[in-house]
Each structure stands twice: as structure tokens, then as C-alpha cells.
């Protein structure tokens, strides 16, 4: 309980998005290094590696992140749809949005970045070393690639949760219910399907039949404290942290890397560009993570 409370205070529990309007304030003389040889030396000695991943890890798979300027669904941004208020007022519209996203994910394969992480975990495990993935992604591509130790802080698109009884269930049906078949087009000219609420996904538990929702954390919602407690432990125990494919603007995940860095532990960022948190890190490698990560995590020559 104490640890749980500490997790709440240390990390903050609500998911929120903070768009940085200015670039990172670079501290003179504190620029992160991009020396891969030096990083590889640190990597060779690490016993417990925490890898924090965001949407960028899946970008090469073709999955939209719903974060960019042009990534809207119909006329809405994900921040307009992925909220408890939107789900409560427009459950059919929100389910269409998530149905669209589920169908996209089912089509996609893991990227070279997902595979590099999964292979690294398996290789290091055989040497008695630990790798944990702490991901903001709600897709299942880390698991598809073979990662075993994955903490999904924003939930899972392939799970449902009953709003009445709270039951969480893995669900990979396509479509998830008959009424959603053929719906979910992102085209702004397409009208809402306006599916009656009793035709949306419903709980299969006996005597419940409550409305199901995607088991993901909506904006403004509380993160699962059990998952956060595990994350807290990993961040405290790791001796190397990688921050991969995240713009570091969604909290609390944006603070995971800086928190590890504040203990004096090396943190390496792999991203298309610098982020508002780059200045906190020891290393920064610019470029698509499906290119930089396989090099960084490749087996070491003996
Ligand atoms: Zn139920």
C-alpha cells in the first residue's frame, strides 16, 4: 500500500497531454552524447534495462499515432474521442473509432525496433540479465514480436472492460460485434453509424450484459495503480534506461526517463528528433528507431 501511494505521488496517476510550444532548453555543456560506441559499453555492463516505448516504436508498421498534426479521425482528434465524457455521450462514435484502430492493428506486423527489443530480452535473460518494456502503446506489437516482460501503462486495445461489473477480457474478434462491421471509416464525410447502445459490445458474464468499453486509459483517467507500482519498481531498480519513439509530452510517462536520470543512471533516447526531455538524458540518437535500435542492441562481439 505504501509503495502504491508512493507510485501515485512520484509518477502522477492521470494521463494528460501537454503540448510543448517551445523547444527543449539546452543546458550549456549538458548536451546528450550520440556516441554509439560509448553507449554500447554501458549496454554491455547493464544488468537490468528498462525500455520505455511510445507510438514511434510502431510508426514504421504504418500505424497512425493519433498524435501528429494531421492525424485525426473524421473531424476529431484522439483527445476529443478518447475521454470518459465522449464515451458516455457518444458510445457508438467512440466504439467506431476503436473498432477502426483494432482492425488496423490486427493487420500490422512488428517493426525491426520491436524485434530488436524482443531479441535483446531473450538473449540477456539467458545471461541472467533483465529487460522490461514499459509501453504507452495500446497495440500488441511488442508481444507479437516476442517480448515477454511488458508493462502496458495505457491499457490494451485487444481487451475490453465491462462498465457495470469491471470484468476485463481479452478480445481479438474482428469485428468486435456485428453492428460495427463495415463502420469506423476515418473519412470526414462519413456520418456516425449511431449504433443503438444495446447493439454495441456487451458483457458476456451471466446476468450482467453491461456495456463494454476498450480497456484503455482515456485522457483524464487514472492509470492502473497495480501497473504503476510495477513500473515504479522497475524505474528504481534499472541500471540503464532507454526511451524509444516517444515525444515525451504525455504524462506521467514523459517523466519516467528523467526520473531514472535523476538517480544518476544513464538514459538513452532514440527518437526522430529531440523531445522536451532530451536535456535530461545521457545519450540521444536521432533517427527512426527501427534503424538505430537494432544497432544499439545488437549482440556484443566477444
Ligand atoms: Zn459485466
TrEMBL record:
Protein's UniProt name: NAD-dependent protein deacylase sirtuin-5, mitochondrial
Entry-linked SUPFAM superfamilies: DHS-like NAD/FAD-binding domain
Keyword match Signal: yes
Domain notes per entry: In contrast to class I sirtuins, class III sirtuins have only weak deacetylase activity. Difference in substrate specificity is probably due to a larger hydrophobic pocket with 2 residues (Tyr-98 and Arg-101) that bind to malonylated and succinylated substrates and define the specificity.
Gene: SIRT5
Pfam families reported for this sequence: SIR2
Name of the top EC class for this enzyme: transferase
Catalytic site: 154 (proton acceptor)
Catalysis performed (reactions): N(6)-succinyl-L-lysyl-[protein] + NAD(+) + H2O = 2''-O-succinyl-ADP-D-ribose + nicotinamide + L-lysyl-[protein]; N(6)-glutaryl-L-lysyl-[protein] + NAD(+) + H2O = 2''-O-glutaryl-ADP-D-ribose + nicotinamide + L-lysyl-[protein]; N(6)-malonyl-L-lysyl-[protein] + NAD(+) + H2O = 2''-O-malonyl-ADP-D-ribose + nicotinamide + L-lysyl-[protein]
Job description of the protein: NAD-dependent lysine demalonylase, desuccinylase and deglutarylase that specifically removes malonyl, succinyl and glutaryl groups on target proteins. Has weak NAD-dependent protein deacetylase activity; however this activity may not be physiologically relevant in vivo.
Cofactor note: Binds 1 zinc ion per subunit.
Amino acid at each position: 500500500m505504501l509503495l502504491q501511494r508512493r507510485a501515485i505521488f512520484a509518477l502522477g496517476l492521470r494521463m494528460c497531454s501537454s503540448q510543448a510550444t517551445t523547444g527543449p532548453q539546452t543546458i550549456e555543456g549538458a548536451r546528450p552524447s550520440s556516441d554509439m560506441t560509448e553507449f554500447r559499453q554501458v549496454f554491455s555492463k547493464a544488468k537490468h534495462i528498462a525500455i520505455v516505448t511510445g507510438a514511434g516504436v510502431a510508426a514504421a508498421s504504418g500505424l497512425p499515432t493519433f498524435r501528429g498534426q494531421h492525424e485525426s479521425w473524421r473531424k476529431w482528434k484522439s483527445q476529443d474521442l478518447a475521454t470518459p465524457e465522449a464515451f458516455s455521450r457518444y458510445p457508438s462514435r467512440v466504439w467506431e473509432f476503436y473498432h477502426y484502430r483494432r482492425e488496423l492493428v490486427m493487420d500490422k506486423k512488428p517493426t525491426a525496433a520491436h524485434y530488436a527489443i524482443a531479441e535483446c530480452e531473450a538473449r540477456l535473460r539467458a545471461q541472467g540479465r533483465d529487460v522490461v518494456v514499459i509501453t504507452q502503446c495500446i497495440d500488441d506489437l511488442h508481444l507479437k514480436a516476442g517480448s515477454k516482460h511488458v508493462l502496458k501503462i495505457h491499457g490494451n486495445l485487444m481487451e475490453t472492460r465491462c462498465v457495470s461489473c469491471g470484468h476485463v477480457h481479452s478480445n481479438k474478434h474482428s469485428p468486435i460485434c456485428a453492428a460495427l462491421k463495415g463502420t469506423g471509416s476515418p473519412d470526414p464525410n462519413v456520418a456516425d453509424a449511431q449504433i443503438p447502445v444495446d447493439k454495441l459490445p456487451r458483457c458476456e458474464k451471466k446476468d450482467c450484459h453491461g456495456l463494454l468499453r476498450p480497456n484503455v486509459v482515456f485522457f483524464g483517467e487514472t492509470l492502473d495503480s497495480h501497473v504503476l507500482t510495477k513500473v515504479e519498481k522497475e524505474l528504481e531498480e534499472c541500471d540503464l534506461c532507454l526511451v524509444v519513439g516517444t515525444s515525451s509530452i504525455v504524462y506521467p510517462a514523459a517523466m519516467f526517463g528523467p526520473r531514472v536520470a535523476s538517480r544518476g543512471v544513464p538514459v538513452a533516447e532514440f527518437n526522430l528528433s529531440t523531445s522536451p526531455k532530451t536535456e535530461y538524458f545521457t545519450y540521444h540518437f536521432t533517427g527512426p528507431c527501427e534503424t538505430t535500435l537494432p544497432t544499439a542492441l545488437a549482440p556484443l562481439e566477444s
